[in-house]
Amino acid sequence: MASYKIALLDGDGIGPEIMTEAVKVLELVSSRNDVEFELLHAPFGASAYFSHGQSFPEETKAICDQADAIIKGPIGLSHEESKKIPVDEQPERGALLPLRRRYDTFANFRPVSLPRGLAHFSPLKAEIIGDGIDFIIIRELVGGLYFGNKETGVNEAGKRYVKESLEYDEDQIARIAKVAFETAQKRKKVLHNIHKSNVLKSSVLWNEVMEEVGKDYPEVEIKHILVDAAATYLCLNPGQFDVMVMENMFGDILSDQGGGILGSLGLMPSACMGPEKAYYEPSHGSAPDIAGQGIANPYSMIGSVAMMLEMSFGMEEEAKKVWHAMQSVFADGYSTPDLKGAASDAKLINTTDFGNRVVTALKNA
Ligand code: NAD
Ligand code: IPM
Ligand code: MN
Fold first, then answer.
1. Percent composition of the chain: helix, strand, coil (DSSP 3-state, to 5)
2. Does residue 117 have a pLDDT over 90?
């Protein structure tokens, strides 16, 4: 029997609520397949800072190091609450970026997908959506502004200043380009490269390397689109996209817009792949505005489990069943409250109920 260790980082806000539902799915998948999951919960995020004095404690690093894959809930506090933690220990800088750096998870897959039957969740008009929405954002995750040099101080004129640099070298660009071309090759053979080369030198190098790597994938057509225009096309004609690739910051922003056109960030799972280790997390944050109410949509978290089953453990069929089970709950007329586009007669259900219904649907799949 295959046996895998999975580190579970519950995180903050709605993190523990949606993690509970993801664990139910993991337990069912294990019980009906020839696979054993050893689930290792570990503190991470603001909650870990308050309980352990660090947002990414040493014990959590050790658990993650030995895990075959990591499932992570969202971390972070509200704007006001964040101020209770020193800037460098805040969980975004103190835990999440170090996690990405530790495992060099450079390739972040953020699928933006809404089957036709669920198109009513989207704020976009039916004629714009057509057959549904289905594209994937591939975001470079360990370079750019996030990890470049940072400097703050007071300049000669006595003014406070800040300097942050957007850094990439050609190897960093080439490895994400390769992932993007390979993904496009397996899908519709069109790759949209999102950039800002009319202003940023980083984008000039980025585009050059994209073209060079593209020579190894002659079947894939590369289309270059400026990031500002891409934001508009995502609203006006998302159907033109299949695989999109972009640097870290652009990917952060456009992937949340992806959640917007689906109707909720709660529909956004993701996979963060490194050379040796991968971790899986919702694309969204800890949703302090609804935390503790039991109404968060666990689709993003359960979807992240489905991505892990496929991408870390090769359990593609089981992953498909998880997606179908979640979509069948919506198709049966149930909806979590974040999906404002739900039909007016939608039966609103909470986090636990959604998770339980997914498990029931999965048992019958
Ligand atoms: P957010 O993504 O937490 O929330 C934005 C909106 O989406 C809110 O209205 C929220 O209720 C809603 N939402 C998000 N996920 C949902 C879900 N599963 N079900 C229902 N509704 C959902 O963004 P924010 O409020 O700007 O950030 C809150 C905190 O999260 C910040 O501290 C931020 O730094 C952090 N954050 C963490 C991650 C991460 O851990 N990867 C990602 C993004 C933001
Ligand atoms: C995301 C988040 C993070 C990011 C934050 C919390 C550091 O917004 O995963 O999209 O900007 O990468
Ligand atoms: Mn983000």
1. 45, 20, 35
2. no
